[in-house]
Design a protein that fits this description.
By secondary structure, the chain is of the alpha+beta class. The protein has two helices and four strands, in the order E-H-E-E-E-H. Helix 1 links the parallel strand 1 and strand 2. The two termini are about 30 Å apart.
Length: about 130
């Protein structure tokens, strides 16, 4: 089965000038996420949302060491293993790995606090 994993991000407040621009940005990302899930269901592809607090760009893909980075750091080398990384490519690889890990351990959103199953939303459920 094909899988797509993506990072559910929120816009940084310092990049957004007005509250209206922030709401437009949130709506656009939400629409993209809904379309991605819908098309995944349509084509039989599993879509996995990676936690937005997962440090995908700061974590070394090779050894797992978390490196303190500034937003301006586009290329960096791991202080633990010495691997050279492009920030975006490293983040994409880590997001894929985290998505596959999430699938392997099971979806935590499918259980209630008591351990009972919940009805999952489908693409056709209006909310």
């Amino acid at each position: 089965m094909d899988r797509v994993s993506f990072w559910k991000s929120t816009p940084r407040t310092r990049l957004v000038k007005t509250k209206l621009a922030k709401s437009f940005s949130d709506a656009a990302h939400g629409l993209f996420a809904r379309m991605l899930v819908y098309k995944g269901l349509w084509y039989g592809c599993q879509v996995v949302k990676v936690d937005r607090f997962f440090a995908s760009s700061k974590t070394c893909f090779d050894c797992g060491h978390k490196q303190p980075l500034e937003l301006s750091d586009r290329r960096w080398s791991c202080s633990h293993c010495g691997s050279e990384h492009d920030r975006d490519i490293n983040a994409a690889r880590n997001n894929l790995r985290e998505g596959l890990r999430t699938v392997a351990v099971g979806h935590t959103e499918t259980l209630t606090a008591c351990g009972e199953g919940v009805r999952l939303a489908t693409a056709s459920d209006p909310r």
